[in-house]
Write a structure and sequence with these properties.
This is Aromatic ring-hydroxylating dioxygenase subunit alpha. This protein is α+β, with helices and mostly antiparallel strands. The chain contains 15 helices and 22 strands. Strands 13-19-18-17-16-15-14-22-21 form a 9-stranded antiparallel β-sheet, with helices on both faces. About 5% of the residues have low confidence. It binds FE2/S2 (inorganic) cluster (FES) and fe (ii) ion (FE2).
């Protein structure tokens, strides 16, 4: 598929996409190279590999990589692929080691990726193997942002903070509420969903519109429900307060550099009905610290969904952070982490873990609602005719604005598809092989155009 054909698949100015972007095998191969080979990909949380020799086994796109803490405290990211015949070197999910030894013929690598020893080296290679040339392939760029470790294969990519742009402001609201930062609580939930990675990433980027309908049954169970006032005192007898978003009240959608977020304003920490109990009480108690660090708007932003392009998503309140690892055009492997403030007491971390799993674990009531949609759309796309249509992505077209209340970036009302349009524009810019300078310029031009429209 050439660049003109790729450009014809997305019209971010008029709000249409062609379904081939979710189903075409050739495009998927190109994505592995041009999206997953060039963007900053989340790999692990610092708290998962605190000591030298600690490692976490994960993926960049479909490429298996090891994230390894070095003796000097730095982090290196290397292909989990033996240089001899390509065997997967390490099969453990995580752990601590002095070396990685290949299970096929026994080549052993130091934690910095250098090839350390080769069985029968003298007899088999007769002194002719230059071990210094056969170390593990390393990601040239590794950076952390407030506890999250990312890597990038592309030496020409902008640094991580530039890549994040205004998204850093939103990410801070998740990671920087309290002194000491965050940590991962419990293990990583992993499961497969039969859908294209962009359905999941785009929904978390942009789609608040699905919530009142897709999650209607969960809303009926959980709200209206007796709630507390912002100061924690109970509402009067029989008084109830529905969550702001269920009432369709005002909120904000943000779009920038392919990233996106949508959230509602509420002065009531309990308005995020998915959490409740000890978790709500904790957010209420720690609100003053969060406000002092982040300001009122971000401190109050307890409910909202977010995607950092391409595949890192998170939800405030339920504290779920997830990566949509691509597994072919019609499949993803979902990896889900529960994130808690390090300073939270153990019983709060335990409560967070439970409320997180209840809503967004593999059998979570909201998780199930969401993935059902993506699976069904993907199934429909097996049809020939189904793949010839245009999808409508026009919500809120022309109503984008820049706010003056400190919320950065291009914004719209919560029920909009601005962030989806920005997400697919960034996808096209990457997929047509532009340089990073061209990509950043195209992103800025897109932002100006949607504001001027
Ligand atoms: S494939 Fe690893 S030692 Fe042969
Ligand atoms: Fe949802």
């Amino acid at each position: 598929m050439d660049d003109d054909q790729i450009r014809s698949l997305v019209d971010s100015r008029n709000g249409t996409v062609k379904p081939a972007i979710y189903s075409d095998a050739q495009l998927y191969e190109l994505e592995l190279e041009r999206v997953f080979g060039r963007t900053w990909l989340f790999l692990a949380h610092e708290s998962q590999i605190p000591k030298p020799g600690d490692f976490f086994n994960t993926f960049m796109g479909e490429d298996p990589v090891l994230v390894v803490r070095q003796k000097d405290g730095s982090v290196q990211v290397m292909m989990n692929q033996c240089r001899h015949r390509g065997m997967k070197l390490c099969h453990a999910d995580s752990g601590n080691t002095k070396a990685f030894t290949c299970p096929y013929h026994g080549w052993a690598y130091q934690v910095d990726g250098a090839l350390q020893s080769v069985p029968l080296e003298k007899e088999a290679y007769r002194g002719k193997l230059d071990k210094s040339k056969w170390g593990l392939i390393k990601a040239p760029r590794v950076e952390s942002y407030k506890g999250l470790i990312f890597a990038n294969w592309d030496e020409s990519a902008p640094d991580l903070v530039t890549y994040l742009g205004d998204m850093a402001w939103y990410l801070d609201g998740f990671l920087d509420r309290r002194e000491g930062g965050t940590e991962v609580v419990g293990g990583v939930h992993k499961w497969m969903i039969d859908c294209n990675w962009k359905f999941a990433a785009e929904q978390f980027c942009s789609d608040q519109y699905h919530a009142p309908y897709t999650h209607a049954s969960a809303i009926q169970v959980l709200a209206p429900t007796p709630q507390n006032k912002p100061d924690g005192s109970p509402l009067g007898d029989g008084q109830t307060e529905r969550p702001a978003w269920a009432n369709g009240l005002g909120g904000v959608q943000f779009a920038g550099k392919g990233h996106g977020s949508a959230f509602f304003f509420t002065e009531n920490a309990d308005a995020n009905v998915w959490v409740g109990g000890e978790v709500s009480a904790y957010f209420r108690e720690t609100y003053p610290e969060a406000e002092a660090r982040l300001g009122k708007v971000r401190a109050l932003r307890l409910a909202g969904h977010n995607t950092m392009f391409p595949t890192l998503s998170w939800l405030n309140g339920t504290q779920t952070l997830r990566v949509w690892h691509p597994r072919g055009p019609g499949r993803i492997e979902v990896w889900v982490f529960c994130i808690a403030d390090k300073a939270a007491p153990p019983e709060v971390k335990e409560a967070l873990k439970k409320s997180h799993a209840r809503a967004f674990g593999p059998a979570g009531f909201l998780e199930q609602d969401d993935s059902e949609n993506w699976i069904e759309v993907q199934k429909v796309l097996r049809g020939h005719k189904a793949r010839q249509t245009d999808f409508c992505m026009q919500m809120g077209l022309g109503f984008e604005e820049r706010r003056e209340d400190g919320i950065p970036g291009i914004t719209n009302g919560t029920f909009a598809e601005t962030a989806a349009r920005g997400f697919y524009q960034r996808w096209v810019d990457l997929m047509t092989g532009k340089s990073w300078n061209e990509i950043e310029a195209a992103g800025a031009a897109w932002e100006q155009e949607v504001i001027d429209a």
